[in-house]
Predict the 3D structure of the following.
Amino acid sequence: MNKIKKLAFGNDHAAAEVRNTVKEYLTSIGYEIEDFGFEGEGVCDYPDYAVKVAEAVLHGKAEKGILICGTGIGMCISANKVHGIIAAPCWDEDTAALAAQHNRADILCLGSRKATVSELCHRIRIWLETSFEARHEARILKIKEIEKRQ
């Protein structure tokens, strides 16, 4: 397992039902959670939570982040607007592994409406336990160069 110990966590109203189970799972396997998620009733705006998690990761308050909304798409788009962050959507076990292995994703974005809580936890664990392959470093540097042009 990687040496990551602190995770930033965020969710919107669509993931309110799974948030505590996912957080409990992560705590049970040894991670400290910095929680930026929505826990109220009603609806909220996912960009607010995505930015909080992305900034926590960017500024070193957490080593990686996990975002969960209905599909993972909105959270992913929002997190990727924070310069210096690479957020990846996760649809299955393969995309969980590849987000770490090929993309060195800082943040994994999942959809509560697209998977069971067990599947979500399994995908997160795969991402956390998969190492980045250095042969992909040149591509990551190209992504960083694109950011510098903005």
